[in-house]
Amino acid sequence: MAENKVPKTIQVVDMDAYSPPLIASRIDKVALVKAKLSFTQTFLLGILAGVYIAIGAQFATFVISDSTLHFGLNSMIAGIVFSLGLMLVVVGGAELFTGNCLIIMGYISKRISTRDMLNNWIVSFAGNFVGSLTMVCWMSQTHQWEFFHNMVGAKALLIANTKVNLSFSAALARGVLCNAMVCLAIWLCFSGRSVADKILSIVFPIGGFVASGFEHCVANMYFIPMGVVLKKHPEVVAAAEKMAGKTLDLSQLTWRGFFVNNLFPVTLGNIVGGVILVGIMFWFVYLRPHINLSLSVKQDFFPDKK
Amino acid sequence: MTDAQTGSTNNQEYAVPIIEIDAYAPAKMADKVGLVGVAKSQLSSLTTFALSILAGVFIALGIQLSMLVTHTATSNYGLNQLVGGVAFTLALVLIVIAGAELFTGNCLIAMSFMARKITGKDLARNLIIAFIGNFIGALTLVLWIYVSKQWTINNHLLGAKIVLAANDKVNIPFGAAFARGVLCNALVCLGIWLCYSGRSNMDKILALLWPISCLIACGFEHCVVNMWLIPMGLILKGNSAVLAAAEKLHGGKIDLSNLTFFKGFLIDNLFPVVFGNLFGGIVLVAGVYWFIYLRPSKK
């Protein structure tokens, strides 16, 4: 065997998390994959994403519906359980409008055309809307809101009413911060390899944005229509007034209030937060042309000591 | 084809796939920190600056979350501080995994300097750019969160909590601020040091959770956190509804006379805290581990 001339090759098996330059190039390539999906695929995956986020949203509403813990702790628990929505989207696979803002990175590197990008955003937005409304129908049929003396419905109503009474600038600013955190969660997921990595990466940013009360347009597509539906049930309104300890002004809680006061500024804010704060910022840092950042610099780049 | 099968004594002749998935041992972590320090010092100023703005934003997101989840607590002080600390870990998870240049964490670059891999100028340049970028990032979020009116929730109770926390911070005596700064950055750098041992995201997040929640729960002073918290307190101080809520929360008149930008923030807080952070990071963590693993006689 001494004359065996097997060329000396060292197979490197890299198990470490992807470093940020690699995350950037992976997202850059994923943009191309997403742009190639057909209309039907994007739309169906968009519906799934809407359903998933709505499942997370109803879970969060349910868990905190009759809590006597203090407000801050309650919000944190709501955030942690809401992460279910994004876990389903990321691990299970779905096209979420807010997360898809990151494909701007592929657009700036000229991998996909403007048409591809807008196509993906519009179709996934429409899909998300359809999915969320489906869940609203479904959840109102389950009569889950009757649980615990209508307290679950009361909480959902209060959440929706707070959301439609935001001022334009506040809704916009909260939308920006929200989608910055959602896109960061996706960014962190692209660093991980295992499902456990991804789940732990999601819990902090997603739990964080929900707890902080930031506004996510797809979550609101469930929260607010659910409130509009529940408003028609006097027993839920009575329970909500008891919960809030005062009479409620529900005049803004209409479809008009939903679109004008909430969805429009929040969607704008989400686009700004995802596209500019995360997408363009990280593109500038890691993918811009003439960058002298050596992309081969990985976290495990130290030479082997022999 | 292993040695046992071939009888060969020289395994260099054959292709041997090496799969190593164990956590890195401390000596290797020191090597990695040294090399990452070199890589960081080679980034262009603009890249470092952009990344350090992000770090300021991330820290501000973490501390606002920590304020939010604790602001309504009326009992179980310690336990709620812990919850606030766990929430704050968000900031360091974003910085370490998503990638950003944090002034306090970058104190570890001093290991490359001590190992003579980079010059003092490189180290100073990185730390100064990171500091300025962190400051700008944190102030951006002050503005943004002010516009979002998040501080009005719960009848301005969140704003009140921020004002009280900021006021506490500007009234710390010099020695205490310095000591808290030292302990804080020792913990931050230890958190990052632990991350160099891990391979996966999960390793890193779990490694960060304990040191980082400890430093926030125990009330140690982190200069970048203060760059968000104290300016936010300064802005909210001007709002009468927030002041009324703060007095109600405090249970009496509060003396906000020291909550000012120059005297209170820059001189009484940031100055001692920054020096404490530098001492804790550069001497207590980078210096000690350099001495143990990288000093010349060890090579």
Task: Give me the secondary-structure topology.
The complex is a heterodimer of chains A (306) and B (299).
Chain A: H1 20-36, H2 39-63, H3 71-93, H4 97-100, H5 104-108, H6 114-142, H7 147-164, H8 168-191, H9 195-211, H10 217-230, H11 234-244, H12 255-287
Helix pairs in contact in A: 1-8, 1-12, 2-3, 2-6, 2-10, 3-9, 6-10, 7-10, 7-11, 8-9, 8-12, 10-12
Chain B: H1 3-6, H2 26-42, H3 45-70, H4 77-99, H5 110-114, H6 120-147, H7 153-170, H8 174-197, H9 201-217, H10 223-237, H11 240-250, H12 261-294
Helix pairs in contact in B: 2-8, 2-12, 3-4, 3-6, 3-10, 4-9, 6-10, 7-10, 7-11, 8-9, 8-12, 10-12
Describe the overall structure:
The complex is a heterodimer of chains A (306) and B (299). Chain A has 306 residues and is an all-alpha fold. Chain A has one domain (20-287): Glycerol uptake facilitator protein. Chain A is 72% helix and 0% strand. Chain A contains 12 helices and no strands. The longest helix of chain A has 33 residues, at 255-287. The model of chain A is unreliable at 294-306 (pLDDT under 50). With 299 residues, chain B is an all-alpha fold. Helix content of chain B is 74%, strand content 0%. Chain B is elongated, with a radius of gyration of 22 Å. The longest helix of chain B has 34 residues, at 261-294. The two termini of chain B are 34 Å apart. The model of chain B is unreliable at 1-9 (pLDDT under 50). In chain B, helix 2 (26-42) packs across helix 8, helix 7 (153-170) packs across helix 11 and helix 8 runs antiparallel to helix 9. Chain B has a single domain (23-298), classed as Up-down Bundle (Glycerol uptake facilitator protein). The chains are: A mainly alpha (306), B mainly alpha (299). The interface between A and B is large, with 68 and 66 residues.
